[in-house]
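User: Here's a chain of 321 residues. Predict its fold as tokens.
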Amino acid sequence: MSAIPLIAAAGLVPQAGRIFAAVFAALAAASLVGQWLKRKKGAGNAVIANLNARIYAWWLMTLVLLAAFWFGKTGAVVLFFLISFAALREFMTLIYRRRCDYYSMAACFYVLLPVQYWLVWREWYGLFAIFIPMYGFLLLPIITGLSGQTEDFLARAAKTQWMAMICIFCLSHVPALMFLHLDGFNSENNILLPMFLIAVVQASDVLQYIWGKLIGGPKIMPALSPSKTVSGTVGGIASATALAALLAPITPFTHAQAALFGLLICLMGFFGGLVMSAIKRDYGVKDWGSMISGHGGMLDRVDSVCFAAPVFFHFLRYFWS
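Assistant: Prediction complete.
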């Protein structure tokens, strides 16, 4: 049995099965190249070792995505609930400095996180869209104030608000895409919307890295992200925009509309990566964590998606439904 029927047997629509089959084929080719380079350059080559670690991590992440999408909408909600939990843990580990802030941190984990994803699962758009920006933003400084500690109060409250916004609210928009009802688009195919988002944004990140290594040149924002070059950024975003246009048949968009959406979410992903890098530089760390070998922490993988997902979701919600 070929790869596509096997993937289709997982309960995915045919287009999703073909996308996963193509990704697995690309990863298999990349693995062969990585092993060939390892034998040619030697196991001690740091660049090749990093490349193979990244390829291995992509295998793992793609399999996790496949497993989640296998179970449809519920699987996607559970997966991104767990991703938000891991992202919260990494963010909290970096910014948590005072014991008096324990209860505001706990509120993020045990109140805001489960309620937000429950609202997504229930498709309760009216409350899902305002729960954290309104109720969460009011609740967190109240809890911080009840600690009785006024030193750096505004900064401490803002940190927990920002953590909830990025790690919970923004990421929850990825599974929320599966509950949209778009004009001229069968809702049974909604699984293709988060796949389009993730594929384009992650491809942009990878292609920026590849173009940057191939061409080199001046850095685009060395203070925030020392590894990003002008050539890598332009080449990666342009290539990912072209990929978005090619993926138009799995979306409700024309090729031109898909390209414009691809450009939009690639730009948001790029700026999101810069913002999250600025936070890391402020705290003097290179990665958010070490959960994913070759990729740092969970937030290092989803920082671009955090900024792209809500913009993509609300554009679709207001202009295609």
